[in-house]
Amino acid sequence: MKLREIVVEKAIITSLQSSKRDEVLGELLDALVAADAIGADRRDPYLKEALKRERKGSTGFGHGVAVPHVKASGLDRLTVAIGISDAGVDFNALDKQPVHSIFLLISPEERPEEHIDAMEAIFGNLSKDQFRRFLRQAADVKEIITLLEEADAGQSVG
Amino acid sequence: MPSRKVTISNRLGLHARPAMLLAERAGTFTSTIGVRRTDAKNTVDGKSIMQLLMLAGTAGTVLEITAEGDDATDALASIAELIERGFEDDE
């Protein structure tokens, strides 16, 4: 699965306003609504689901990254929003460190294998120091898109 | 090195929560734990959630677990049991 194909360009936020987890999830969902990637009526239910998931165990897996996710029924395609925070967001991460890069994943409940494939594509890159560093330092959306394209190209080789 | 093959049995596969449970379980042992898909070459660190998620293990994927260290036998039995039980994944 290619990151460039699942990440919604208009839902990349290079400078998140809030440093609070719940508000940051709201910002990312608002961006997905604005990009027409999800319906406006889905914003609140998805936020509730994402928070419910976080309460079962933080998706802040360490190294300053978090991958909150929602499994939604009746979704046409898997969709991802990215948020970057300079200040850092408290995600109650496993390593207790603030989170600087957030990938919000909305995946179709009926097709769990797509969720697993997307996790592979995301973590295959987030586990690389250089990818995490470039992501955090990206000045604008264009730089992030280039980074995702390069990551996809590297991935297809390996 | 002691090893054991286990099939992922829960419907949703090795998603975030199961990966976390596996890494936590592996972390309770001093042995080095390796996890590999039997259809792939690379072995990942069984104590790293991020690396486990890179395996993209779905229901039916066969994993080979290896353990090296003083408590290797116990570690293998414990981790295999967790996977075979389907991680008690309530979806």
Could you walk me through the main structural features you see in this protein, from its secondary elements to its overall organization?
- The complex is a heterodimer of chains A (158) and B (91).
- Chain A has 158 residues and is an alpha/beta fold.
- In chain A, 46% of the residues lie in helices and 23% in strands.
- Chain A has one domain (3-157): 3-Layer(aba) Sandwich (Mannitol-specific EII, Chain A), CATH 3.40.930.
- In chain A, a hairpin with a 2-residue loop joins strand 2 and strand 3 (65-66).
- In chain A, helix 2 packs antiparallel against helix 3.
- Chain A starts with a helix and ends with a helix.
- Chain B has 91 residues and is of the alpha+beta class.
- Chain B has one domain (3-88): 2-Layer Sandwich (Histidine-containing Protein, Chain: A), CATH 3.30.1340.10.
- Chain B has a four-stranded antiparallel beta sheet with strand order 1-4-2-3, with helices on one face.
- In chain B, helix 1 runs antiparallel to helix 3 (72-84).
- The termini of chain B are far apart.
